[in-house]
Fold each of these.
Amino acid sequence: MSDLSQFVIPRGFRFGAVKAGLKQSGRTDFALIVADTPASAAAAFTGNRVKAAPLLIDAEHLRATGGKVRVVAINAGNANCAAGQPGIDAARATCKAAAETFACKPEEVFPSSTGVIGVPLPAEKLIAALPELAKSIGSQSDHFQQLAEAILTTDTVEKTAFARIEVSTPEIDGPGEIRQEVRIAAVCKGSGMIHPQLVPHATMLVYILTDAAIEPTVLGAYLRGAIDLSFNRISVDGDTSTNDTVLLLASGASGAAIGSGKTEFAMALAQVCTSLARQIVADGEGVSHVVELRIKGAASDADALRVAKAIAHSPLVKTAWAGCDPNWGRLMAAVGYSGALIDPEAIDISFGELPICRNGGRAAAYDENAAHAYIQQPEFSIAIHLHQGSGSCTFWTTDLTHEYIRINADYTT
Amino acid sequence: MSDLSQFVIPRGFRFGAVKAGLKQSGRTDFALIVADTPASAAAAFTGNRVKAAPLLIDAEHLRATGGKVRVVAINAGNANCAAGQPGIDAARATCKAAAETFACKPEEVFPSSTGVIGVPLPAEKLIAALPELAKSIGSQSDHFQQLAEAILTTDTVEKTAFARIEVSTPEIDGPGEIRQEVRIAAVCKGSGMIHPQLVPHATMLVYILTDAAIEPTVLGAYLRGAIDLSFNRISVDGDTSTNDTVLLLASGASGAAIGSGKTEFAMALAQVCTSLARQIVADGEGVSHVVELRIKGAASDADALRVAKAIAHSPLVKTAWAGCDPNWGRLMAAVGYSGALIDPEAIDISFGELPICRNGGRAAAYDENAAHAYIQQPEFSIAIHLHQGSGSCTFWTTDLTHEYIRINADYTT
């Protein structure tokens, strides 16, 4: 992260991370985001019916405070999921300790966990690390970087995105307008068990911070809009996690108040979320190809998404990509079982600009060598036109490689 | 196949296979089943909306004949799918040539294809091979074995199953009953792209033959019943093929007439189909573990199936099995996103007889070493009790291994 990033860290927040001893690797594994004053908050959680203990407590806390958060307490190395009452107790104990450290209510603490499922979280390790962590937090880019590192699990790189916009707000004591800078900074982790189905949708953990002043309900609407174009449009392995969380906090420290329907803010937020979503896919477990699916001409947007997901979840399609095999028949099969309304004889497939399939059969101009060369690229685009209507979607996914198997089949206990 | 199998080959059929030059390996790739007289027929085809040309023609032919088949013409090495009008023309030309060879109507020919999608079928190769094939057919077990070999693609073993029952039928001119032997013989292929969703559901190709005399509509009801307990309860990779076909033929050559609701026949048919379904899973591409899922206590049978399928399609669960990793948290996650009605705190998981998870958390008696040892076995059973109702299902699936990736990612053109 260059020094320039200092100018895009939203005002009103501090960050930090320490080693609490949860990661076997011995890396930092416990991080905090601390708002100077209670920040407006909007969150989205996994659609999985098995939800980790911190998500249950997060939802309860947001209801209790009407959408206000002072402290986000994030651990990696343990998902605190399927751990029964001890898991709930561990999350509550962490919130209580953090609330004492920062002189706020326990309900103003937002716990997050990622890592192995089914092993009780050792809250005592987090609590013991809190004093050191509280001393180390700060508002600089290197503090933000510490946060970005500590929340990683099988990820290989940190994932951050930034935006800065200027918004016009009415002058308080006059007829004019004043221009104010609003910053957005976002950080996330996620590499495997990636098929977020967020409700309104992520073990993807995403934290988005802004220094705009936005009411929680308005903030929620912005968040849902951005998620639908980003995190709900990616899949690495089709496994929807029990811990997926997206949290958007607005500190108000810029002094710029933003109401509903502010296009510049919505666009900047969507841009930041899409950047993170693509970074997650690019860092997917064992990924050697990132694939952009552009589905067009579907009977509805929902149908377009069905087609994209069927392709993104097909082991046969994903292994063909891993082998740079332009086997488009596997794409046709996935389109066919997607559940979307289709006419098999009205399907066109292109790899980038290369015609592959026209009217459901091999394109006259099909060039296997060119198709093979095209999908040897680390990132490529596949367009499928169904000719059924005007439904469409763009979706990002990955291949399925030997390395994915190695990462997930290695039994090391 | 031992000589004993001669006693279980249904009377009224002949079989054979030749090398038509479709398989790159140079093995036999074109097989026939020929009924001495038109056999009663019932069939089920893939639920994929992209259907191969032979399936479209099969459905048309069965309608035209009211469910009668003289010749089944099966090629491996080319799926004749997504090949447009040339694909349809190729299938029709094959039917016409077979009809001429065996002096029947083209509508009494049932074509089947399996292999690569998107490449036009070279019907001329099949037609050129017909005379030699017609000469070689016979009714012995070695002829049946030739059929079983010729239809294979990525399969590593032939898959056959046999049953023999005695049925009582009223004496025609008297008050007594006579006991008559009815034979069932079945053969199939299938290894990858296996998640049959047959409608009333399979590139699984299954041919079941009996010498009972059964009307086509009654035969259809028997077939649907057997499929729901067998082929619709397996998945290797979750990819539903464009070519899946199950065909049940009844020659009547035993002289035993079977009407609807004959339990012995239904049970024998289900037993044969379940045997084949399990053989397909055991020969799944790259499989190192076959897993039986026993879902109990679901709100409905449909919910039980949702849970089984979510688990069977989870790359994270399947890679854990490949690594003999007893990571039950991945099972919990899959149960959670299955869409089934669940209470996360009322889920019990057992590996065989070993308690793994109780009430949604790690079982008190959980023994990781024992769990690890248990799933090192090539075949094992996982039971999940949801405590929501009386819905249940048994489902067979596989792990996801390096070998699956090798088989499907190798680009050899």
Amino acid sequence: MRYELYYWPTIQGRGEFVRLALAEAGAEYVDVARSKGGVSKMMAIIGGKGTRRPPFAPPFLKTGEFVVSHVANILMYLGQHHGLAPKTEGGRLWLHQLQLTVTDFVAEIHDTHHPLGPTLYYEDQRPAAKRRTDEFWTSRAPKFLGYFERLLAQNGPYVTGRKLTYIDLSLFQLVEGLRYAFPKRMKRLERKLPQLLALHGRVAARPRVKAYLASEQRIPFNEEGIFRRYEALDR
Amino acid sequence: MRYELYYWPTIQGRGEFVRLALAEAGAEYVDVARSKGGVSKMMAIIGGKGTRRPPFAPPFLKTGEFVVSHVANILMYLGQHHGLAPKTEGGRLWLHQLQLTVTDFVAEIHDTHHPLGPTLYYEDQRPAAKRRTDEFWTSRAPKFLGYFERLLAQNGPYVTGRKLTYIDLSLFQLVEGLRYAFPKRMKRLERKLPQLLALHGRVAARPRVKAYLASEQRIPFNEEGIFRRYEALDR
């Protein structure tokens, strides 16, 4: 069976957390919205076409049987079906809550450039974006990343222990994204995150991830996604 | 077995979505942080005391075996163990993604009074809060609530069909909270949400929910939680 992934075609965005898991799983999939007419197909499903369970927003994954939406939910599904998650109930709940912490963190990363709401342009909210970004790097990024740093120190080499799971792929992407968007600020914080950086290297070296990153499937970072490089916000 | 719920003792906040599910399930639980020394106990667990799986933040639920955190994750757990969720994989994934949409909506509601970040006071971000709140009521609230309105019209009387699940309890709480925080704005939007209002009434009338709402367990709304009534933001 070939999965169908639906996400905005020109950005990594939230979809990238799913693409990385699909790559590591070696799962076959079509990135539907990146082919002709794909965005219209995506919007039709959101509008309820062909399903009584329309997702609220991309990304979502069609599995043959289900339309699964929300990154953490898709990863929970893929984790269970492709060996990227523990098999016990306790292990699965633990891993899922770690991913939900990433979800919250991603929302806060997005809000650094969109503090006044997702429907206004960055250019219309620059002063607020500066204040929110300062606060983010003072209080929030150290707290979120420090949490995972501690777990890695306790459990390593991967966040939940000996085996890679989907949370490790997401943490890799967070490091990539923060390095892209805030090279100066991230460089300073990285001094306190040796375990996380080691994990980043470990994930980058996995053959399937490496091949994916070098392929055309990997969309370069740009100023439309979650991670945006704005000089004014990086100091 | 008696659950232990850990959440801030003086607010409904995110914990209230869990309290409502515990009430409807008729589950026995202690609201630990509301008794003497409870907040310290909560912070100790977050600090890693007695668990190798420390949650990032409240709310979290200690079952006999696990520490489960994040509202949507806790509800998924309770739903499965107390008949507040479907039994099939597809049904569970669908319900969970609806709850994750509520999670996103709750974060945006919080941001109406905290657009510059959760670590600053509202009083230090009033102009930004006004702009974000306007945007929220123009674009976001109609989109989120309209989504659930459509699902109710399609599936009713409950969001996923004939049976109440945990998402219905959360939607009840959203209506309660938005009515408290933004009485004028919500009143106008309610004209377009007849199904959601009917659901709100249906949930409020359920014997266990009704008893819970009338009890001292239900903390009144106030200006410390997610839903805050600030005159300046309601027009």
